[in-house]
Amino acid sequence: MPRTSVAKVTWSWDPLKHTDEEPTPRCLARVQKDIADFNATPPPCGIFIAPDDVDITKISALLIGPTGTPYENGFFQFFK
């Protein structure tokens, strides 16, 4: 039987340490595309997003717990 190995992650990224970074034009274009794609197709039931009016890279999200799970009808809000 072949041996398998699991790579160990040795880095992490903390968005709170990068609050003053200016997004690149490529980043802004990608975020705009992702928001447009999200709004163009019906999003999964119970998922709502609201980009910041000034900085679209900051997005708030609201998820409603799915039926038949311990999270049913729960509200889970993620802030920008």
Automatic annotation (TrEMBL):
<dbReference type="InterPro" id="IPR000608">
    <property type="entry name" value="UBC"/>
</dbReference>
<protein>
    <recommendedName>
        <fullName>UBC core domain-containing protein</fullName>
    </recommendedName>
</protein>
<dbReference type="InterPro" id="IPR016135">
    <property type="entry name" value="UBQ-conjugating_enzyme/RWD"/>
</dbReference>
<feature type="domain" description="UBC core">
    <location>
        <begin position="26"/>
        <end position="80"/>
    </location>
</feature>
